[in-house]
Amino acid sequence: MKPCGRLVLQVARRMGSCKQKVSSCRQFSSEATAHDNIKVGTLCEMELAVAKQLNMKSHLPAPLSKQMDTLGEIVTLIREPIAEIASCMRIVDKNLPNLRLVLWGAFGTGKTVTLNQAVHHAYTNKWAIVHLRSAMELTRRVKEIEMSSFVSGRINDPSNAVAILQNFKQQNQHIWKILGVLLTEKDYEWSKSERTLKGKPITEIIEMGISAPFLASDCVGALFRELRRHAKDDKLKVLVAIDDANSLWGKTLVKRADRTYAPPSDLTLVVHFRRMISNDWTNGCVLMVADKKEVADARDELGVSRHTPLELFGEEGFEFVEPFVPIETTNYTESETDALYNYYVNKNWLASKAARSEEGRKQLMHLSAFNPYYYERLCAFN
Hints:
Layout: H1 3-15, E1 26-28, E2 43-46, H2 48-53, H3 56-59, H4 62-71, E3 74-77, H5 80-90, E4 99-105, H6 111-124, E5 128-132, H7 136-139, E6 146-147, E7 155-156, H8 158-171, H9 176-180, E8 188-189, E9 195-196, H10 203-211, H11 213-232, E10 238-242, H12 268-277, E11 284-289, H13 309-321, E12 325-329, H14 334-346, H15 358-367, H16 372-380
Parallel strand pairs: 1-2, 4-11, 4-12, 5-10, 10-11
Antiparallel strand pairs: 2-3, 6-7, 8-9
């Protein structure tokens, strides 16, 4: 890691909260508005109205989304990674380059959940949120393409661009009035008949892209450009949260006219998100998840792929995102499993008598090897 990255990490950790013993204390999200109120070891409940606005049902892992429907609430455990992220977000300033954080760790240790906790934390502190559910959607799950009229050889992705704008609009309703008074810096000519004039609210760019899908890819770029500019001017703070961010430098399934696969650098939306990751703007925080699904072979049952940022981003991607603060997600401690176990017992999520016994508690803990994903799965079927 470069020296400036180490310095940021040291400052953030000094400003962070100390480790606390894990308890089953419940804390509502309204109580966790301030950065200082992130308490490691507490179970944080998010209001369902907020979860709906932040579109948690589609952004959280599927098992947790189903659990939310069944229990009628969304409760997550506050762990060290989200406390460290909150400490880093506290030092974001208009005079400092955007702070880049990379969440990494083994499968099932809570990278996506931590990312969504950070999104919720940004919401409670009235930040603008740019949240991408998975970068793989831009490279491998492209439904339709069209060639860009703005940059020769660039490939637009109308359906994903509209989805990005709709998600941005939904997740930023808490600051929509603020966005409505932020004005464009220049004229944007989308086509011969469509344009957004200088001095218009940047929300008009969003509405333009949603109403005209063939313009949506360019509208995403214009929106991101305006957000970076207003962040520099200290009009707002911006959180960029990207799951599977290493896929922005991975393989694509998008084919050109000659039937060859296009590199990620030819995809318009990938270029726009890379510009948001670059540290040439201030007053923002970029939180990326490095996930091995981009490089792992699902058919290889014996191979164990590495999950460190260098292996997952590759040389090109690693050099692009450096310097950054690495934040590792790990397996549960025994006290963390106890906190969740007590919650599941109180909510009758553990139905069998064997699972609700002391012996059952120990078996669930050790059968899951303290892995958060496997622990939740075992609890769901006992």
